[in-house]
Amino acid sequence: MAGTEPVSAAVNRRRFLLASGATAAAGAAGTSAGALLPRRRQHPAVEPAARSAAAQRPVRGAPRAAPYALTTLETTARLGGGAGPGTYRRLVSGPGWPLVVRKELATPGAGRQGRRTPLACFVQFTDLHLADVQNPLRTEFLRSRGASSWRAQEALTVAGAVALVEQVNALGGGPYTGLPPAFVMTTGDNVDNNSAIELEWFLTVMNGGRITPNTGDPAAYEGAQNSGLPLYWHPGDPHLRDLDKRRGLPLIPGFLDAATRPVTSPGLRVPWYSTVGNHDDLPGGCLSPALNDFAVGSRKLLSVSAADAAAYAKALGAGDDPKSEVLKAILTRNAASARTVTADERRRLCTPHDYLAAHLDPAHAGAGPVGHGYTQDNLDGERMYYSFKVAENVVGISIDTTYRSGHYEGSLGSDQLRWLEGILAAHSSRSYDAHGRLVRNTGADDAHILVFSHHHSPSMTRRPDAARTDEPRHDGAEVIALLSRFPNVVAWINGHSHVNRITPHPHATPARSFWEVNTASHVDYPHHARLIELTDNGDGTVSLFTTLVESAAPHRTARDFDDLSAVGLASLYREVAYNAPGLAESMKGGVQEGWAGGAGDRNAELVVTGGPAAG
Measuring CA to CA, which residue among 385, 411, 399, 398 is closest to residue 467? Predict the structure, then answer.
């Protein structure tokens, strides 16, 4: 694979495999753990904001003292100490990241700060990956092909997500509009393994309530981290010199007991909307729904032969095994050597109908709306896409980019593409057909349009979907071409890559340009969400402000690792993620830009020509 692709393509492909929980495919290319880290990208012209974020920020209530900063404009987590072999580095509070003005699509007008009209303010969550780490269908055994193929922090995803909810609840007015966030949009991979219990945890995190992040035996943990296999971090075992302790991860007595104790989420105080990702739709984000019997069963495979690991990695890399027959054969062949665990029906895989029905259950309404974007019409047709009102004269469109037959890449079917075109046209008095001819629709409201999806454009392909064989699929380039026909489109906001990346999509007709905002995950470094604000600059342009937000957990963990409260676990969750294999060694200036993005991918003002009149 690495020998036949350009370097950038190879890095992206491995990153997508990491996002799907299938990183061992990188091992098939003979790469090292460090090679799985995204590389720094050279950015087009960007400029620092003329004034500091603090100078532009409307007056609001006094923020909490660091490390409980409200946004990364004020402070950011970073590794302290020096990097070295076998060194575990503690987190400290570093400087904030300044606002950068992105002007590739429109010239920022002088004095626009004084003319701005606030239009909208909301928060994007993406790739929470709430994980039942004891699920028998997980493929941790792929770690034998590389240290980066398993996350040591995954047992703490629930505590980490609760801390993120707490941070959103603490946000006041947005730094550039003064508007409080009106809602949260999740852009997919809300759960990790398409299971009913993970979906219940996710809905409870978002809506509020008590969660026990434990399955199987209610009195015992039955996963990789007390298996006795040195392939995995055993935080509570003082005698086992496992792979992660050798690279510096600490001994933390009581860690697994604490990780499986109940935690209570306050729930979001604002409404929230849901967009589906490949992990929400498929076990492991890339496996066949036909594997349910293994998910609810009592055999958990934690170690396989090199040949089996290589065979599975090859199948994942090729993506030509929609029924997961290779994995099924490996699980069956190695059943006798697998760990016996307590079977649990709550781990059953969710169909699209199950997923929609759970969102529509009034018991999961939280701060609203019932369905979180989905309606009974969605349930009846198992259609996981919809449009909604973001704010006055601002419309959101949530699309479903998942393959249902077993693949981590994304696409759109023809029916959904036609539906998307219809929604775009309904809100555009002036647009363009596929041949570039002007189209007028005098009845349109000319709302600004924001499109939400899980997959970003590079990860969308035309791969046939074995679950929908009669429907052609459409890739990211085709979606970009469609969106560029409608001058009202401001941005396409998405996740999946686990990387902060903001990409301009220019057009010869400036009003047909738009931004693509790709946000990193909350399971891997750098653990971000985005606070997004939209303003009309009063000069024919609009600005989209994209401010990164960390969770409410303190940057510093307890000195002796003895704070195993929910807050302490949320801090450990972040710190262990920052100590992922190869990460510290690739940081420069306290930032690994392959994942966190360059300055222009983080806290940015994205200026674009606004509205159909300019088109």
Answer: 411
What are the CA-CA distances from residue 100 to residues 180, 181, 598, 605 (Å)? 22, 21, 10, 6
Report whether the peptide linkage leading into residue 289 is cis, meaning its omega lies within 30 degrees of zero: no
Verify cis geometry, omega within 30 degrees of 0, for the bond prior to 526.
Answer: yes
3-state secondary structure 252-295: CCCHHHHHCCCEEECCCCCCEEEECCHHHHCHHHCCCHHHHHHH
Q: Is residue 40 scored above 90 in pLDDT?
A: no
Long-range (24+ apart) CB contacts under 8 A made by 302-308 are: 302/140, 302/141, 302/224, 302/227, 302/229, 302/231, 302/232, 302/338, 302/339, 303/141, 303/144, 303/229, 303/231, 303/337, 304/141, 304/144, 304/330, 304/334, 306/144, 308/333, 308/334
In which band, very low, low, confident or very high, does the pLDDT at 18 lie, cut at 50, 70 and 90? very low
Residues 6 or more apart whose CB falls under 8 angstroms from that of 219 comprise none
pTM value is 0.91
339-397 pLDDT, tens digit per residue, is: 999 999 999 999 999 999 999 999 999 999 999 999 999 999 899 999 999 999 999 99
**Does position 19 have pLDDT exceeding 60, yes or no?**
no
How far is the C-alpha of 457 from the C-alpha of 438, rounded, in Å? 26
pLDDT at position 475 over 60 = yes
CB neighbours of residue 79 within 10 Å: 22
Instruction: Decide if 522 contacts 125 (C-beta within 8 A).
Output: yes
Tokens of 259: 């990780």
Number of Cβ atoms within 10 Å of the Cβ of 4? 8
Residue ranges in 132-273 assigned as alpha helix (H): 157-170, 196-207, 243-246, 255-259
Residue 23 contacts residue 15 (beta carbons within 8 Å): no
What letter would DSSP give residue 210?
A: E
CA 54/CA 510 separation, integer angstroms: 31
| CA–CA gap between residue 560 and residue 193 (Å, rounded) | 33
Could you give the maximum distance between any two Cα atoms of the chain, in Å?
74
pLDDT digits (tens, 9 = 90+) for 284-338: 999 998 999 999 999 999 999 999 999 999 998 888 888 899 999 999 999 999 9
Amino acid 611: pLDDT: 56
Query: What is the H or E stretch that residue 567 is in?
Result: helix 566-578
Q: Specify whether the CB–CB gap between 149 and 31 falls below 8 A.
A: no
**Residue 490, phi then psi, degrees to nearest 5:** -95, -45
Query: Whose CA is closest to 467, among 405, 397, 513, 403?
Result: 405
pLDDT above 50: residue 242: yes
Token pair 């969770």 in the structure block, residue: 551
**pLDDT at position 1 over 90:** no
Residue 5: pLDDT above 80?
A: no
Model confidence at 400, in pLDDT bands (50, 70, 90)?
very high
Which pLDDT score is estimated for 69?
A: 56
Residue 316: is it exposed, middle or buried by C-beta count within 10 angstroms (0-12/13-18/19+)? buried
For residue 49, what are its two tokens? 């904001």
| Listed residue (60, 118, 33) closest to 392, CA to CA | 118
Q: Which residues contact 110 (CB under 8 A, 6 or more apart)?
A: none
